[in-house]
Amino acid sequence: MILIFPIGHDHFRMRRRPYATYALIALNIIIYFLTSSARSDANTAWQENHNDQATFHCRVFLALKGEEFGYDHASARDQDEDAPYFFCYENHDAVEATWVLFETNGLTSTMHPLYQEYLRKKVVWNQARTNSLMGRFALTPAEFHPFKAISALFLHADIWHLFGNMLFLFLAGAILEETFGAFLYLLLYLLSGFIANTFFALLFTSSTVPLLGASGAISGLLGAFLVRFAKVRIRFWYFFWLFFFFMRKGTFSLPAFIVLPLLFLQDLLYGVLTLEGGAGVAYFAHVGGFIVGVAFGLFLKRYEIYAPTLVEEEKEAAGPVAAGPMARVAVTERRYRRKMEAPAANDYFGRFLLVQALMTEGEADRAAQEADALAEALVDTDQTELLSDLARIFDEPQSVPVMSDRAYVQAAIILEQRAMPQVALTMYEELAHHYPVSPHAARALFRAARLLATQLANPAGAHLKLVELLEKVPHHPTRREAQRVMNEFRATKRLAF
Known about the structure:
The chain is mainly alpha-helical. It has 5 domains: 183 residues, Rhomboid-like fold (Up-down Bundle); 103 residues, no CATH class; 28 residues, no CATH class; 75 residues, no CATH class; 62 residues, no CATH class. Helices cover 67% and strands 6% of the residues. The protein has 24 helices and 3 strands. A 3-stranded antiparallel beta sheet has the order 1-2-3. Strand 2 and strand 3 form a beta hairpin.
């Protein structure tokens, strides 16, 4: 037995409380417990109704088409009383096809006793369905109503159905609310749920099984989460149990760009596999909601629409700042500068702003300490863009190292790729100065020489870097390459990297 479920992610710490998410969770829980008695009665009534309909479908089939399919009425009397129903089960498709013809008056006249009985039963079935909780608020695809496509989002079949949905709602919804703002977040939730349920109803127009649950809306949140936080690592808890002899538990993490597409493909695959026979899970509602969420997230990303967040809250402290995403950066930076708050360990952007604020305040030593720890975390989590931005804060030589030797190398290489050779050169020089015995020092000096020769048009400076490498690094693979360049320089008076 294997149990796996999500418990968090790298951006789990929020700067503001997600009140809209709390409200949605509270509303779902309250509705679940307030309707528990009615839901139990509705489930019982629906099951009785469903059994009565199935029994009547079977009776119609046996009476009108049974002999055609080999059913012997005479011998059936001597058999077990359940034998007719086993026969109908084995010929399920024929039973349903016969029922469609019978219901449209294609097999009998309206005065046939079976048809008259059907008309009486139909009234009872409809009353039982429309008077129940499920009939009033759950979505029945065969009787689609826009209101029920929304109201069904707040109904759940059982406590585990509720728990699973609320867990995903909290994990994905809280950070999306902070990113998009409460209004856009709620719009995404309701729009995803409505379109997901409508999409499912369009695929199964004849289904009389009620659809309920927030899964379609939450799938929309997961789609938007994928667009906005593709590189965030999602943490899982697992428990593995094999015949009482082997048990393991623990945690692991995977990036969202792996987990969420796999979840989408799983829903799509299960949906296709159960397309004919139906299933207890509305997989295609998940698929529809996820697509809506991705589209919504891409739209907001394309037009750089974000929550107003701290701008309005800190107008006095912030003063006039530029509009758009940079306004949030500037205001948040001022908050850290003023309060010198310590962000959470996994709040990498907050820690980056704190380093920025400390440098602005002239606290270079503390900024270097914070930057060193942050750079290690950014290297480990492969957040290269933020690492290069961190390096740019220290574009002047520092008295103490601001990051590890491997972080210096990675940051410098990224800055080279982003066409920032001068800042990259500073990173290489800082590494060689602060970590002279590091195995990365020779590589840094060689790359610095190449930068000077090829991008900064300074062959004299490049020559000095190569000389420094050959003098300070007696044994390193890079030394041989540097020696080759120097020998060619002596012969041709040109530095060829």
